[in-house]
Specification:
- It is built from two helices and 20 strands.
- The protein is mainly beta and 257 residues long.
- Strands 12, 13, 14, 15, 16, 17, 18, 19 and 20 form a nine-stranded antiparallel beta sheet that branches. Strands 1, 2, 4, 5, 7 and 8 form a six-stranded mixed beta sheet that branches.
- The longest helix has 15 residues, at 95-109.
């Protein structure tokens, strides 16, 4: 039976959508919420879904047969409110459009369970060569004054036609023109990490393509439900909706010791 080592120190507070880093040498496995996975580089990384309720969360890792545990406190939802105005047909959907959206949601939802060998390293490559200030990750959005799902990616304003790059090696799991996200590419990078590139003017890849880090994915556009040309860049890691900024600059991720 493994020995368990707890910890009674002060809890680190993290926002929902964060990725928590627990560095350490000799780590054999990491775990959270009943799941286990291999360590990454210098320790364990724990993706916390954007919609995780406020409260304490237990993190685990195994070293030399010993189970070590830490706890973090997930903060109350801290993100801003964003009001957007779009065509009414993109908010109050027709029966035909609603059926299309539901079908697309099923196709996309199937990607979150992908479990292929890890093909990425940190930090991820920026999806635009000159990455502008942007984001609004987590913003609680209102379209035409109607509440909708929180913003689970980062938006980067860029001129239409700006090249978009794959942030890591992987396989194109889905490439299609979707109702809300327009021309969209989803890339499976292994270890449950899926990157998303939305509102593209044109796609440069097809489903099943194998990509190297930095490969051309497409070009910035404003297809789908968009108010102007920009790249919506999103990440899901082990099903969790996470702030992409923390994978582009992992040194900014909250850390436990």
């Amino acid at each position: 039976m493994a020995t368990t080592i707890g910890w009674a120190g002060e809890l680190v507070e993290v926002p929902p959508g964060a990725v928590v880093r627990w560095p350490g040498e000799g780590v054999e496995r990491c775990g959270m919420l009943g799941r286990k996975w291999a360590p990454l580089e210098d320790g364990c990384w724990y993706p916390i879904d954007l919609l995780t309720a406020a409260g304490e969360l237990s993190l685990a890792r195994w070293r030399e047969g010993t189970l070590e545990e830490r706890r973090v406190r997930v903060a109350d939802y801290p993100y801003e409110v964003q009001h957007l105005t779009v065509d009414d047909s993109q908010v109050d959907l027709s029966a035909e459009d609603l059926a299309r959206v539901r079908s697309e949601q099923q196709r996309v939802g199937a990607l979150w369970g992908l479990d292929t060998p890890r093909a990425f390293r940190l930090p991820l490559l920026a999806p635009l060569e000159a990455l502008p200030a942007g984001g609004r990750f987590g913003a609680r959005r209102f379209f035409n004054r109607q509440p909708r799902s929180p913003h689970s990616g980062a938006d980067y304003a860029a001129p239409e036609g700006t090249p978009v790059r794959a942030v890591a090696a992987g396989r194109v799991a889905l490439a299609d023109d979707l109702f809300f996200s327009g021309r969209s590419v989803f890339v499976d990078h292994g270890d449950g990490l899926v990157s998303m590139y939305f509102h593209l003017n044109k796609m440069a890849v097809e489903e099943g393509d194998r990509l190297e880090r930095g490969a051309l994915v497409g070009w910035v556009g404003q297809t789908g439900r968009a108010t102007g040309p920009h790249l919506h860049f999103g990440l899901r890691w082990r099903r969790a909706r996470i702030d992409p900024a923390l994978m582009l600059a992992p040194e900014a991720a909250p850390e436990v010791r």
